[in-house]
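# step 3/5: fold
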Amino acid sequence: MVLTNKNHYVSVKEMCKIDQAAVRSGIPIELMMENAGKALAFHIKNKFKGTSRKTILCVAGKGNNGGGVIASVRHLVFHGFKVSLLLLYQKREMTKPSRFHLATLGKNAKIIQYDTKYRKKILSTIGHFDVIIDGIFGTGFSGSVNEPIFSIIESIIKSKAYVVSNDIPSGINADTGNVGTICVNADHIVVLHKPKTWMRIWDLPTSRYSIESIGIP
């Protein structure tokens, strides 16, 4: 399946087919995640030129969207940012490609593992960062946002941070544009490969997003 029009809006099903075709052509999911992470880091670098002392919180869910955010950590650290990674799920619950990128981090970032015992402290910590990168849910999300994720997103909304979402703000259905109880209010969205159907439904202004390559032919 070849799509040459950058402005062609794709459904979740179409994007899945594109991803699968890329994998069959020899491009692994881990490489696409790496490219997504690099695109996120470059956006932050270009946004805050000369101010690498900004503190960044990368928030990762258990899916491949979170893996792209995990992959951004090494690039952000390379550019001099102070980075913390908030993992919302245990390692065993994460996808294999996400675990791969987690294993590459070494000591590049402070890792915060979400635990209900430290819920209040973690929610409070979210408001202390200059930049938040959202990788909680990807385009496969549908339904409602429940706890503890609801409170995490609520804390992101209340923060004064500059918020960047990986491909789609968490909590939005990529096909219908419906919000599952709550969604991240991203200042900017790094859209991967193609714009998604919800963006047409919302009539999202071009100032709110950039479309970036993740290496798919």
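# step 4/5: annotate
The chain has one domain: 30-212.
# step 5/5: archive (pending)
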